[in-house]
Design goal:
With 177 residues, the protein is α+β, with helices and mostly antiparallel strands. Helix content is 24%, strand content 41%. The chain has helices at 16-28, 137-151, 160-173, and strands at residues 2-6, 9-13, 35-36, 39-42, 50-54, 61-69, 76-84, 88-95, 100-107, 111-120, 127-134. A hairpin with a 2-residue loop joins strand 1 (2-6) and strand 2. The longest helix is centred in the last third of the chain and has 15 residues, at 137-151.
Length: 177
């Protein structure tokens, strides 16, 4: 809200963004709509290390997976299995005790099932929290380009825009759209 003085009188003006923000806060009660937190449900009988993710699924598009593991656990790998209408794929996320592991991943439209499997030396990974955070495409592309420029030998030392241009030229040369 803004207070504006016109001819010595103060008027209160409500900005449209304030109205939208109030409406969103009432609709989504506390957490932003782009944060999705699934519930871990034990998977197949006899396999204690596999969980099905039920409840809130990630939004289609670029997502950041945030996985927080209990401090008492050992180092290990969390494997997220994603099943869509057309294919299945898996993502391996190395986890450390007491730290939040983050991975950027593209989730296609039409996800049917998502499950999580854990593996480490003692098979005792305890997951405190799993969260999907939807990202805008330009943020995800910038983050990937920044990462490529810092570690990939072909793109090392290039700026973000140069990396994007190089990737675009390479995709056109391969016949991708």
């Amino acid at each position: 809200m803004l207070k504006i003085a016109i001819n010595g009188l103060f008027k209160t003006v409500v900005k449209a963004s304030d109205v939208v923000q109030q409406w969103l806060s009432k609709q989504f009660s506390g957490k932003p709509f782009w944060h999705r937190e699934p519930v871990l449900q034990p998977g197949k009988p006899g396999n204690q290390l596999q969980f099905d993710l039920v409840g809130e699924r990630p939004w289609p598009g670029w997502n950041m997976i945030e996985l927080h593991v209990d401090e008492g656990a050992m180092y290990g790998v969390a494997i997220i299995l994603v099943e869509t209408r057309h294919k299945k794929f898996q993502l391996g996320i190395p986890v450390q005790p007491g730290k939040i592991a983050k991975r950027l991943v593209f989730i296609p439209l039409g996800v049917r099932r998502i499950s999580l499997a854990t593996s480490n030396a003692s098979n005792t990974l305890k997951i405190k929290r799993l969260r999907w955070v939807w990202l805008t495409p330009w943020f995800a592309h910038d983050r990937l380009a920044r990462r490529l420029s810092s570690i990939h030998p072909d793109y090392k030392g290039m700026g973000v825009s140069e990396v994007k241009r190089a990737l675009h030229r390479e995709s056109v040369a391969r016949g991708c759209r």
